[in-house]
Amino acid sequence: MSGRNRGYGGQEKGRVDRVRRLVIETLTDVERGTFLDAALVEARRELPPSGPEAGRLHFLATGTVKLQGRLDYELNARLPSGLESLPRRCRALLRLALFELRMADAPDFAVVNEAVTLAHRLELGGLAALVNGLLRTAVREGEPEPPHDPLDRLSVQSSHPRWLLETLVEAYGLEAASALADWDNMPPPIWVRVDTSRTSMDRARELLAADGVSLCGQSPLPGYIMLGEGSVPAHLSGIEEGWLTVQDPSAGLASLIAVPLEGKRVADICAAPGGKSTHLVELGGGEVEVHATDSDPGRMHLLYDTAQRHGGSGLMVRPFEEVLSEERSYDVVLVDAPCSNLGVLRRRADARWRIKKEDITRLARIQVGLVEKGAELVRPGGVLVYSTCTIMPAENEMVVEQFLSHHNVFGRHTVPSVVPEAFVAGSGTVMSLPWRHGLDGAYAVRLMRQDTDG
User: Fold this and answer.
1) pTM for this model (two decimals)
2) CA distance 283 to 278
3) In terms of CATH architecture, what is 190-246?
4) Among 27, 36, 249, 272, which is disulfide-ready with 92 (CB 3.0 to 4.6 Å)?
């Protein structure tokens, strides 16, 4: 593993023990099926709301999950019975300790000693000798040689499932797949979108500076600002006041491809948590009516929270079936479908292990169904936008082609000029490819209903 992270930072012994224990609990919960983000929220409840411990928790847990494939390769090479023969908590402890040995700047002896101590505290005392011996061997011998097969080697070194790399190579080539794998393992930057209908970009920068936030980077899409390292968006006044939204610029493609929106009636039917819904309102300049809903009832509360925080008069949160009953009544319909998230692995560390190859086919069926539901709502001459945060062709172009083959009243429509040419990927289509655009992966297509009321 390349280079240790010098931002690791030293902590008092008690604090280190607490953070490490919480990381092990987090990793154990993730292996049981809990989403990493949810497990981290739960773990942070035991820490002060501000201070270095929360950052340390995030660094260790996220880094260990991202590099799990590489860590497991080394651990399995040193365990005659294999990693799966050990209890979950012991697996989590070994993964964390090995991640620290390879990627953090804590002294090796301290990592080993703390791991052995934790083995006792976690009632794994019978395995303490194994933990001690394995980690000392890892310090002494270094990493084992990776596999000889080029794709197996890339899978281990980049900590990505082999099936995923095979699919990426087939779609984009080995060089792009390798670049994407490197991208996925880097810390994600924090972008915020400014509601320019409520404040100017210059004023937004002034207010962010007043909050003590450093700014960096230029956005290739309008309305976005990259925050400096160490920024905590939850503490920014603009988030609670509703004129700032945490969102990667790539997510804005789905909204930008829908313009012009002034005077339009819009439905966003897979809207939770609501970032794209508020963007649609903002792009409409106060002259648009956006009906936001979601097919997952458990996520509707996220929409209500976003609408309340945003405070825009153009946003209405409505029940899913109620919106779907209004056939042929919307000028624009956005279907930002649930997907594999394989364009945002940099932000969703556990997604690479959670998604299986067969899930892509299952998700594509769901996506086609949602596009067909959205199409029923589009008035003649209206626009249907389909978008995802994946770069998998089976979830993007193949879904669109399947839909168009059975709905010839729809056709691809010109990408609006507000979208930079660099993102245009074909007729009516835009894409963000991380290795090319330096943003998360995303896809969107603009389709127009070409029939008439008659």
Assistant:
1) 0.92
2) 9
3) 2-Layer Sandwich (3.30)
4) 27
